[in-house]
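Per-residue structure
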Amino acid sequence: MGRACWVGVVLYFLGSSAVWAVDVHDVRLWRAPDHTRIVFDLTGPADYSLLVLSNPSRIVLDIQDTNLRTNLADLNLVNTPVSLVRSGVREGDDLRIVIEVSARLDPRSFALEANDQAGYRLVVDLYDFQALQAVPAVKKSVQESAKRDIIIAIDAGHGGEDPGATGPNRLREKDVVLAIAKELRALFKADVGFQPVMVRSGDYYVSLKGRRDLARKHQADLFVSIHADAFKRPQAHGASVYALSNGGATSTAALYLAQRENAADLVGGVSLSDKDDVLAGVLADLSMTSTLDTSLKLGSRVLRNVDDIARLHKKQVEQAGFAVLKSPDVPSILVETGFISNPKEASLLATSRYQKKMASAIHRGIKEWFFAHPPSGTLLAWQKQQGGQLYTVARGDTLSGIADRFSISLADLKSYNTMDSSKILVGQKLNIPKS
């Protein structure tokens, strides 16, 4: 074993020094694309220090007057840079946690006080070194042909230590909405002229501000956040679409749901440095006014299509101060796919069939809007400029036969007409783009 080299010490304090011993009653670990998060659930506040040591590489966490009441061997370390987590006792009463790592990492830590959603916690984030390097912003590829894809940022709510709402049979919102988000991504992936970007692709937490930042980094044309409601009464039912409000909420339910969703950072474990600092005057900005207008109109298209497959909670797009929707320059909507607290709707949300139907409805609504209002410089805008012709389906026609007749691909014909299948009806009108 090589000589231990002390690299740095950072001290953090949460409240006054503990008078009675604190217990670590659970330890949880999640892997995100750029970091590994370890959360220590505590029975009370505790002082702690973090040491970074090398030869061998390890991170040492000392928590004063604390006992370990859980098994560290149960942690799943697969596909993480953490090779081992072990514990010991230091100076009689202090708990020492040693995190052995196999790669260069940059550790960050912070303590969280207890709140209505969760108890006292100590969070250690181990950031991959390469993820900390300067990453250039993703640029929309507008070349001379001006046929770039429309970028759709798909946000599955909650994740990681934040399960979101919980329904019957321990159905978790974070699992349901990730499944719907993946179905939505697959639909847009198959479309010509669209590029989906997942904000969360696995079971880990992203802060509300971090979700907006990812959408802006990818220069998204739309940010769509997917959730599943919960309410105090199990009788509450129906899907909804929300946009941001620059004033009060449009209903008591909208206000309640916005407060629930905005509290996600309390559960997800967000340090004070991650709090929002850009929105003080942005709602009065003209760009925000335009963004809100687009969000409301696009949201109406989505709501209309969701109405085909689900009961609606309200027949119009509602508004409230959802923090995740506060991008000044990216149209943003939040789709509540149903009440997971309602046993009947929860049973639907739990099925792959219904998840696919909900993703298809959201997909159709978004495509309808962008086919009617394509952003400049996109393939869809170019197609619209080319014009085309209207064709009426006759008896004996097939979609593939029509595509061959007009020398265009079947995929392009379906995409141009916002079609999810090749089924056509006699008398149906099809838009035929110029080949």
Observations:
- Confidence is low (pLDDT under 50) at residues 1-18, 278-284.
- The longest strand covers residues 22-31.
- DSSP finds ten helices and 18 strands in the chain.
